[in-house]
Amino acid sequence: MGAIIIGAAETDVLGRNPGQSVLGLNVEGGLRALADADLEPGQIDGVAGAYSPHGVAHALGISPRWIDSTNVGGCSFLMHVRHAAAAIAAGHATRVLVTHGESGRSRTGAVPRPRDPQSWTGQFEEPYGARPPYTRFTLPALRYLHGVGLDETALAQVVVAQRRWSSRVPRAGRRDLMTVGDVLAAPALAWPFTVPMICMLTDGGGGLVVTASEHATAGQLRRAVKVLGTGEGSDPLLVAQAPDPAGDSAARRAARDAFAEARIGRSEIGHAMVYDAFAHLPLIGLECLGLAPAGGAAEMVAAGETSPGGSLPLNTNGGGLAYTHTGMYGMFAIQESVRQLRHEAAAQVPGVSTSAVLGYGGMFTASSVLVLARD
Predict the structure, then answer these.
(1) pTM of the prediction?
(2) Which residues touch 77 (CB under 8 Å, ≥6 apart)?
């Protein structure tokens, strides 16, 4: 019994939405996903989300018999799909609603995140200034660039490539085309990152409905996206303890499991979404997925292989760098893969039938991978 995604939708507004709370964004994302699947809340018996899934269920009038509140940051929603697939296969749920909502820009109804001086990071990183995300991603980025003999130009090329996509997407937050020179000349925030190399900060959300084909109607099956393979993993919470400071061993493990379950080769992937809170992550992610040789992702990007018309379209909505980034981006990466596979994307890749989605979370300490397909 393979899992399928039969509903997928984002909130109406992506960007600045101070009038809607975190709960409201989750509820809107869930309702829109249900409408996309032609379902009512009463037909859902499983809920998942990084923000209070039991609270979202109550607001929607759902009485779930299965709940998943996994929260490891931005890749949580990929894990929710994986966990939902397992729950459906085990008979613990029939249809699972996964929601996301985050007021990352306006902070309306956002859950406070106080410092914890007794935590790993509170003891060994935050006292030295490593608290904002850009202060904890600089070291892995620099180590990667040094290891493969690259400089900031490689990061700028990622931005340029993704702006080629976002310029074609009306909902994207950053649509202006840029040159490598433009990116490098932009204001610096934390070396080696200039502002365009760092993700947006937005409000927004979305939802997914996961089920199995035997629980779906003929109409739902016509637009269904298959979940061929899934994987997940985590590494130590401290950057200094990372097994591979230049890469992501958790992502490599997750990709290995996802492709083994999917039973397809890397060469069969026609589209990819890689979590891109910072411009080096698509490079590392392509290599972790096995879609680029070690140290070879930057050359692919520079050659236009990930841009429109290239052999491996990547982050075709513009990604977190140019489409939207509420703080936990994974939901939007899945949404774009579903749109591409349904042939409903604003910047549609012709003939795409397979997509790999890689999410990062927990400041580069957790990862999850989905391999999706549509006949």
Answers:
(1) 0.97
(2) 50, 98, 100, 208, 328, 330, 331, 334, 359
